[in-house]
Amino acid sequence: MTSRQPEDQPFDATPRSVGEWFLVMPLTRTHWLAGLTLFMAFVIESWEMMIIIFSSGAIGAEFGLTTGQIGSLIGAMFIGMIPGALLWGKLTGQLGRKQCLMWSIGLYGLFPILSAFAPNFETLWVVRFFCGIVLAGALVVTFPFFEELVPVRSRGKATVYLSAGWPLGVLAAIGITVLFMDLGWRWVLGFSTLMSLWALVIYRMVPESPYWLAEKGRTDEANAAINRLAEGRLSAASAPGASGQGTDIAFLDIFRGTALRTTLVQSVINFCFSWGYWGLASWMPTLLARRGLSAPEGLGFMALSALFMFPGYISASYLTGRFGRKKIMLLYVFVSAVAGFGFANSATLTQMYFWNFTLSFFSLGAWGVWNTWLGEIYETRHRGAGVAWGISAQRVANAVAPIAIGAILASASFLQTVSFITLFLAVTFVASLFLPETEGKALV
Known about the structure:
Blueprint: E1 16-17, H1 18-24, H2 29-63, H3 67-94, H4 97-108, H5 110-116, H6 121-147, H7 152-163, H8 165-180, H9 185-190, H10 198-205, H11 210-215, H12 219-230, E2 240-241, H13 259-281, H14 284-290, H15 295-323, H16 325-344, H17 349-376, H18 380-409, H19 414-432
Parallel strand pairs: 1-2
């Protein structure tokens, strides 16, 4: 990393690229407010993806669904996110990070209320599908957007903390399920409509990405965004040099030239890592029931597991800032795979708790690192499309895994099912060996 000048002194007026400004930018209150705002956006995403799982038993009972149909319903939102991620990946390069995030969160609020009034399984499935298309925008934008707002030296730690919105969303979904389930699953799903109001907070608290503005040739706006983030602690007279010519980059460019290898490797990681996590999470209530836990005990088990995710994120945030993305990702995924096989072979409830809590700690810590790493391995002109493609690969796994695991559960044991899911974590470990380290490097 280049040397930094003291934060309390103005910098010279020599034009710099956006990345060079972020090498010397101090961390300010504006960064914290933007981070908290985007953190809550990720909480909303997590909440909505988990709430259908916690409601699936009641929905299945009302509509008389088979396990296969329940798996299909859980997967409907993720099927919608596949084309949704590709659509938003294109739009985020055209409309900007902020506009796409606001539209995604704002429009999302229509679908929980439509879900609450669904008269049958088929209607609910379609509503969840379109909910996935709309909410995919938030998934595509949130992490790369945040990485384009924070100083280089804080980027890794800060972005891993952003990932901690996932367990908070899980806990919120559990809490809402417990609070409203006596009123019925329609109340549980419909309550989420209120979350769309968060789009107004995004409008007020988060500036547009200076990287995107400069890439589009909007230099004055990029300069204003940088000065807003730095709160006047950089020279206001110094404008960043534009890094692009304002042209749109074809989505398929991530499959050409030097970007192709990165795209292939991250596709494998996104699919396998997501399968390894979601295949287990989507059927955890059923798997726990097979081991003798009641529904309330199962929710308690999952709530405690979510609590163990927080120290996983905190430790990963600290360590990735010291040792980089690659080493910590490899370590945490390896331990996650070991814990997954340990959970599969658990003979007692105590062993189940130990291994699943270990899995929660390390797998979600690894997700925090990966959410950060994925947004750093592409140039700005490819970042939106690259992350969108990665999210699509995740959503393919999210859509297929509940259906596939539901079919496997019909004939396989707890040991066989969990072991099969965990094999995908092993593949994730191997694929992670082939990506470059990005800690301490300016985005380009």
